[in-house]
Amino acid sequence: MNDFRAIADRVEIATLQAEFTDAVMMRDRARLAALFTPDGVLRMPDVPVELTGPEQIRSGGEKLQEQWDFFVQNTHPGVIRIDGDTATGRAHMYELARLKNGFQGFNHAIYHDRYRRTADGWRFAERVYEIRYLDTTPLTGSAPHRGPAVQRADHRRPAPGDRPPPESLPFSSW
What secondary structure does DSSP assign to 92-126, as a single string? Predict the structure, then answer.
């Protein structure tokens, strides 16, 4: 890790992984699709879904997200191995979801990744989703009311009037 280029590459790839999670959580399908090479593939055999190229990834992501009541994904970066203009790596996830068809639960999963350096920086050449643990026990929580603070598109702090009253939050006794 003494090579500045290798460090910069690792930071850029870790940022790519974080951008993926953020794009999914923010339902920004155009940004999600832009994270892949033109021939990039997103495979989710357990779903089952296989999408090739940014347009399929964008439209397929839209179809998947239409099925969600709510979805929360937390990603932990795993190993990254760089070999010139290609790299491999993994990202470890904890996910919590309820679909509109009634399916619900949480899981631990891994994305097995292949990356390629492009003129626009590192991009996913392939991302393969593997569920390692699945628990479909009914979830006791729910998605919060989508008030103005939740709908805000920018990253500024909500104005005091935008926040729900503290007594309406489940942890208001803290």
Answer: EEEEEEEETTS-EEEEEEEEEEEEEEETTEEEEEE
Question: How far apart, in whole angstroms, are the C-alpha atoms of residue 129 and residue 46?
Answer: 8
Structure tokens that stand for 130 in this block: 């593997």
The pTM assigned to this predicted structure is 0.80
Cα gap 170→97, rounded to integer Å = 19
Q: What is the DSSP letter of 169?
A: S
**Coil, helix or strand at residue 129:** strand
pLDDT digits (tens, 9 = 90+) for 90-137: 999 999 999 999 999 999 999 999 999 999 999 999 999 999 999 999
Q: Which one, of 44, 49, 146, 50, lies nearest residue 95 by Cα?
A: 44
